[in-house]
Amino acid sequence: MTEASFEKLRETRAHRPDAIAEAAARRSRRRFLDGQGRLMLVAADHGARGALAVRGQPLAMADRYELLDRLTVALARPGVDGVLGSPDVLEDLLLLGALEDKVVVGSMNRGGLFGAAWEIDDRFTAYDTDAIVASGFDAGKMLLRLDDNDPATARTLEACAHAVSALAARRLPAMVEPFVARSVDGRVRNDLSTDAVIRSVTVSSALGTTSAWTWLKLPVVADMERVMAATTLPTLLLGGDPDESPDETYATWEKALVLPGVRGLVVGRTLLYPPDRDVAGAVDTAAALVRPAGVGAATGGGHR
What we know:
By secondary structure, this protein is an alpha/beta fold.
């Protein structure tokens, strides 16, 4: 991206706010899945929850212009189907013209701010179903953390169930990202043991009045075979903020991507902020894992 692009973006936001809805209305859309039934998405909703750290750098994702530059590079790579983001990020990308022929997933509950006392109470503070439909987007994503010792979990469960039902009524996929969570020294920590992930899968799979349009978004943990045996729902693997080397991360993804039911990846920080700063190279490596035969993402094909 150039400074002229960002200046135009700032001026449009200040003087022509209706341009966002106009860009959404004329955006060229594509089918949700390609012919292989695979999906590679870039995640960009971390900032809305105040989660800006990458590999121990607490404000690594704070510079919006750098983030947009990295996102536009990633979205332009072959094999990248689309993006998952909060309204502010997706609307910037709309105005920059980066969402043409892409799958776009709206992030819905961002109210459980990172490090906050109410973190488990993941209120729906971003997209709702009506806004996703009005924008012509393709799915909604929600975070569900299950903490048996925090009563706020019940409110989040109920809110996610309503969102799953509302999206299904509009024939839109609901991507549910579940975790079993624990409070450790006042901080919320996700339990990434295999048994805990299996429990989160069984609970989240049953949310809403129908599971017909439900997808799962799961971490890659030990014994993923057991995790995937717990559900028949289509599943995407999430990247998180790994401590291991990129080569180790890619090897872990490659092993999990061949399991029955796994349809692809949703990765953010790992690909957007690689240690060597080569965003295109990191994205290309991940895309090749999602489609090992080298078949690119579907482009076009009209609406679902």
